[in-house]
Amino acid sequence: MTLALDVAPVMVAYDVAHFLAGMMLVASFMLLYQDRIFAVLNTFAAQAMLLALAVAWQGYVHHHPDLFITAAMAFGLKGIVIPLALNRMVVRLGIHRDVDQAVNVASSMFLGLGLTSLALLLVLKVTPGASSFTREGLALALAVILLGFLMMITRRNAVTQIVGFMSIENGLILAATGARGMPLVVEVSVAFSVLIALFVFAVFVFRIRERFDSVEIEYLDRVRGDRRVQGDGR
Amino acid sequence: MNVSVWAIAVIPIAAGILLALIPSYRVGAIGNVLASGLTFATSLSFLAMPPVVEDYVILDSLNTFFVVLNTLVGFTTSAFSASYIGHEIETGRLTPLFVRFYHAMFQAMMAAMNIALLANNIGVMWVGLELATLITVVMVGIYRTPNALEAAWKYFILGIVGISLAFFGTILVYLAGQGVLGEGLPAMTWSKLLASAPKLDAALLNLAFIFLLVGYGTKVGLAPLHAWLPDAHAEGPTPISAVLSGLLLNVALFALLRFKMLIAAHPGALKPGPIMITIGLLSLIFAAFMLYQRRDIKRLFAYSSIEHMGLITFAFGMGGPLANFAGLLHMVMHSLTKSAIFFAVGHVAQAKGTQQLSGIRGLSVTNPGLAVGLAFGVIAISGLPPFGAFMSEFLILSSTFAREPLLALAAAFGLLVALGALLLRLQNILFGAPTGPHHKVSASSLPWMVHLSLVLVAGLYLPAAVIAWFQKAAELLG
Amino acid sequence: MASPIQSFMAQGAQMFLVLLVAPAVAGITRKVKARLTRRQGPPVVQCYRDLLKLIRKDSVLAGNASWFFRTAPYLIFAFTWVAAALVPTFASGLMFNWAADVVALIALIGAARALLALAAMDVGTSFGGIGSSREMMIASLAEPASMLVMLTVALAAGTTRLPEVAQFLISQPLEIRVSFALAFVALVMVAIAENARIPVDNPATHLELTMVHEAMVLEYSGRHLAMIEAASYLKLVLYFSLVICLFVPFGMAPLHGEPIAWAIGLAAYLTKLTLAAMALGVWEVSIAKMRVFRVSEFLGSAFIFSFLAILLAFLSREVLR
Q1: Contact (Cβ atoms closer than 8 angstroms) between residue B449 and residue B375
Q2: Do B319 and B477 form a contact (C-beta atoms < 8 A)?
Q3: Of A30, A154, B199, B447, which has the most beta carbons under 10 Å away?
Q4: Chain B (132-161) residues lying within 8 Å, Cβ to Cβ, of chain A
Q5: Is B124 in contact with A185 (Cβ distance < 8 A)?
Q6: Does A223 touch chain B if contact means CB atoms closer than 8 Å?
Q7: By mean pLDDT, which of A130-134, A173-177, B379-383 is the weakest?
Q8: Residue C193 lies in domain
Q9: Domain residues of chain A, as ranges?
Q10: Who among B164, B206, B296 is closest to A168 (CB)?
């Protein structure tokens, strides 16, 4: 039995990156089938931490120290602060603990598998010349993004739509990290926008709760186009 | 580092911070107008400046005029908003605290849009556009009624979908650039990307363009990604509707055009033309038919915006010097006319106390001044002479007819359908027995008069300098 | 390649090894479960005694039982034994290497399962029907998952023959493969479902409405029941061997092995088997049985994991080309 300890460093570096990105994808799938809000928030926190590790590892391997800042932001902000804040919001607003699914779990899982395959095949086809890190990072990032969209579509709850958007941002940051050398300016701006986005979300959810006593999106659907609930002018 | 170029962004930001601190809404409104006027004056200095191409900032023939247009409409909108806000506070729809935030966010939004227009770095362009979108989302929901919240939420969700897709497209463009220009800043600089466009990877560019088209196209309001537009226009305060239609749609289309130039410069990549033609024509015809069923006055003009943005996209898709020229001209005309219409509509809605078309009748009897303004605005936007929009639409149709007669017929058909709907509605609004309450409104007619006179002048006589600018920009667009 | 005599001996030894060891494995699991729940529990060799007792007893058949009912147990035992004998345990230089293909393995297991489900319905009792339908539902979800798992490993090894896969894995340096991790989790979930273990099915239950596997064998007695019980023990060993061969094959004797290598391989295999049996016991004690309609979610997630495993394996293969 051989146990070669002189493994080529590139292989190890790639394997760890692949492992972290792959686990992010698994977390995205888990987000799709969770039906309790706290579980969703915890899974999202786990995904954010995996993102932080992945970004930090890329920074370490490619000697880009500025990526450590991004990793720290992802870890602190999206791994700890935002899930805690959303958690507190859920508790305080008394939002229902169970989440309704617009599409049933099995169908959304199959759709998720289809989207993942699509994303992988697409990126592999389009980037024949790029480095292995970039290709696999981009492919898995696109899969995470598409799964985030799927989550936003198949859920009926405002909080989970927020989490879906946050997981899309996780995927975007993973993609930006994969594209090596993207200047820090963009990363700081992305993080900044995340902050603003969260502020907006929080403000909205409070207002929605104020008005409707719940955050079910169906209540928001009453006004469609020109039809209004309180009688027609015609 | 040219000072006035940076001033364009810095002035609104500083003003925004200042306005957030001023408690009195009247002073805030005046401050808003002053800041916007100052920004506009600064932008006028661009007309005399030579082109600037730096790492983060670019000032070429394409965006110079747009910055001037942007700040002009911002200035007149702030003037309109000053006269509009007083009534809103009186009727209790807004509290003074919210008005404070409103003014601060207005300036911040102008800053973001200017940044997006002047950016040479595709990442900074994205940031500017995203900030502008987020700010307008908050402002759409500022009335805090159930309908406003729904409109804002829908706008928000669709907006962030668009933002995310556009960001992914930006990453792909960077990747394509990275292969040729190396890692780091050069691969994010638009001017350098354009210079080495033929060497970029075609497949990456194709995929990137698709993402960018869907992402920024959502912001432009192209069908089928337009779902947020009517609600956002109808439920937000009227100055915001004017800003959305007159400015934000233009800035988003501008961003799209920058990338269209990039991909068009690569001979082996996807031809952006046919896609833009299809999506533009689809929006045009779809929105034209939707105009007939609208019962809310602001929704009516929102669909008109979709229609015109479709027409403009169609024109840029056709390409070539004449169609590009006409597209640029129409962007300017639409921007000025639509904001003028919304200025008038805002006061009309205040006077009648409702936005429902069934409640707005006999305007020529009750508010003759507003009626005249609205009438001129609708005539202008329908593309009737002697207003400027007629000239641009005519140019689009004739240049298309010379190349693809069938497409020109389709576009003309859409325009005629829209014309019919708008004139029908206008007739109902102006004539007939006056309905409903009649509030006294201290309307300022200056903003819409300024806009419409500009449009009228453009329709009758375009100065040679302006024509030259449009021609240069059209050439750049390829 | 080993000499024909050696490979013949290895294969024969393996056949009898799995048969001998199977009841003990089940016994170990039972003992661990009992000890963890503070009972003495039956001795480890009790399963052997059970089988001997059953073989000596008369087989009682229902009046309307057909020939199929009588012959099915033997066929089931045969299929399962062949499958268990094919999976390399302590050596990979076996005579029937060419037949030890993952697809063939799945076919053998599937055939055994189909026969059992049919036999359960043969007598026409409602419990047999319940068991069969539940078993087939579980199978319809578990089989694709197990196929994908095997294909993931086969993709990495470049072949679907188990001994060669094992040798490939032994020759590789130790590395982190996320696709293997996911495939391992998926295969363990499938193994639990196929062997009718908690949380999918309780092997010690006497409540018919909660049964899946037990419901199918309710009508059997005597030597027929002995055959079926032996087959279920063998199936457990089969899945353990599969997991060991695909994921932790270290210690297995290479293709042309000497007796020393065989001895090492044997020791390694028996150790791993015992550890696996004990782990199963601990697992069964720590978790509750799921309701039947939740089983499809459980297996659905196994399918998702296995699909992800193969997607990731494909991705890394393409990217590193």
Answers
A1: no
A2: yes
A3: B447
A4: 134, 137-138, 141, 144, 146-147, 149-153, 156-157, 160-161
A5: yes
A6: yes
A7: A130-134
A8: 4-319
A9: 9-220
A10: B164
Indicate the domain borders of chain B.
1-267, 271-478
Q: Taking CB atoms and an 8 Å limit, are A109 and C297 in contact across chains?
A: no
Predicted confidence (pLDDT) at residue A229 exceeds the cutoff of 70: no
Nearest to A208 among B149, B188, B294 (CB): B149
> In chain A, whose CA is at the least distance from the CA of B166?
A172
Contact A226 B171 (CB under 8 A): no
Rounded average pLDDT over A41-70: 88
Which C-chain residues 156-215 have CB contacts (< 8 A) with chain A? 170-171, 173-179, 181-182
Chain A residues within an 8 Å CB radius of C312: 18, 22, 25
Please give the model's pTM, rounded to 2 decimal places.
Answer: 0.86
ipTM of the complex: 0.83
- Enter the tokens of residue C252: 């297995």
Comparing CB atoms, the residue among B150, B171, B204 nearest residue A220 is B150
Residue C43 has pLDDT above 80, yes or no: yes
A165 contact residues in B (CB cutoff 8 A)? 157, 160, 164
A228 to B147: CB separation less than 8 angstroms, yes or no: yes
What number is the average pLDDT over the span C37-62?
93
Between chains, do A132 and C320 touch, taking CB under 8 Å as contact? Answer: yes
**pLDDT at position A6 over 70:** no
pLDDT tens, residue by residue, C83-127: 999 998 888 878 888 888 889 999 999 999 999 999 999 988 888
Q: How many CA atoms lie within 13 A of B256 on its CB side?
A: 31
The total domain count for chain C is 1
**C315 Cβ under 8 Å from any chain A Cβ:** yes
Give the pLDDT confidence score for residue A191 in this predicted structure.
67
Write phi, then psi, for B189 (nearest 5 degrees): -90, 120
Alpha-carbon distance of B457 to B332, in angstroms, equals 13
Q: Test C304 with A18 for CB contact under 8 angstroms.
A: no
**For the residues A7-15, what does the mean pLDDT come to?**
70
Cα–Cα distance for residue pair A204/A187, rounded to 1 Å: 25
